[in-house]
């Protein structure tokens, strides 16, 4: 069968393409924004990519078109599909029908940490010899690929609350019907489709309704929004993490790189790994709990943490030149920015930490998190805010209220020149964006190598 995917370079749709190809389908796709790591992964896997949404891409006519949730009415390819009566479906629906049927699905949902926790959970199962399938909205470095079918009953899926398609406004995750579900945290996000936090809580409640009584729900005990979700009705056993929860951690290193794991008051072991930050420890507890539900003992899971490597674009070290370390991070929400910077600060002490941030997500563009942005960077030494074209509000107020030195810049090359000139040995530079950011990562890496290499 020939499948054509509209929006194929999105992290979810690109992963779907790999699964479809592994099932034996001919796969092609179109996208307006083709950039790494997904574009390079698809090209490496031999999947045909076409730039833009020209209806000619749909000739000869595919057997089925999978339409990404970034597509809307008026898109020329979408209109062509509808006019010609070409069969179509959403990505989550296709995944549910063709991959997740008869699998033990382990779903990772939440506002933050889904990609890292999904990658971690897949790794815990892999290390235990359980060879899971997975679909992750990023590229886990332990696997080097964002999705695979796997040949065991277990399948780990990053379960996003974003809508499924222009014709299906339900959250993606209601299609997945997990047996094991991690609800990592819950805050307001996706202001382009959700009016308020209560609207998102309603979607999470719909997810809870799909989890069987023989399953397991795992969530941090202190998360008030998730407490409200569970309070709406829950028919599944629940385990909690964090303060007052079933699963708890006691830090043995301030940066979270070494900690004890406790389950119901019993010490399970001491974890040592390469990750840092309280958010990373919280992710680990949830993953350990989920892995235990399918048979990975806490002792096995704790030992496996040492071999875990973060997914690409999650505090990924992309250069270390002349003592200047450059990181790429996907953070695009004030909480994610804050926890990422706090984790790095705990690791590096008082050394210089420069954050370069592009407020690119739909929620950021709407200004919904504007008031929370200044406080999110308190652990940085200095911040450069990039004002991208099309941002409808000024970042000047964020700079004015910043607790650390900050400035707004509108030219990527100027940012590269400034940072390369001012960075000294010992400086950490973190680029934060959920997009390609005009190629700044490679530009800055090259500039640092030229000046400091």
TrEMBL record:
Its EC number is 6.3.2.45. Residues 108-291 form the Mur ligase central domain. It catalyses: UDP-N-acetyl-alpha-D-muramate + L-alanyl-gamma-D-glutamyl-meso-2,6-diaminopimelate + ATP = UDP-N-acetyl-alpha-D-muramoyl-L-alanyl-gamma-D-glutamyl-meso-2,6-diaminopimelate + ADP + phosphate + H(+). Pfam families: Mur_ligase, Mur_ligase_C, Mur_ligase_M. Residues 2-100 form the Mur ligase N-terminal catalytic domain. InterPro entries: Mpl, Mur-like_cat_sf, Mur_ligase_C, Mur_ligase_C_dom_sf, Mur_ligase_cen, Mur_ligase_N, MurCDEF_pg_biosynth. ATP binds at residues 110-116. Its cofactor is Mg(2+). Belongs to the MurCDEF family. Mpl subfamily. PANTHER family: UDP-N-ACETYLMURAMATE--L-ALANINE LIGASE-RELATED (PTHR43445), UDP-N-ACETYLMURAMATE--L-ALANYL-GAMMA-D-GLUTAMYL-MESO-2,6-DIAMINOHEPTANDIOATE LIGASE (PTHR43445:SF5). Reutilizes the intact tripeptide L-alanyl-gamma-D-glutamyl-meso-diaminopimelate by linking it to UDP-N-acetylmuramate. NCBIfam families: mpl (TIGR01081). This is UDP-N-acetylmuramate--L-alanyl-gamma-D-glutamyl-meso-2,6-diaminoheptandioate ligase. It comes from Halopseudomonas formosensis. The lineage of its organism: Bacteria, Pseudomonadati, Pseudomonadota, Gammaproteobacteria, Pseudomonadales. The gene is mpl.
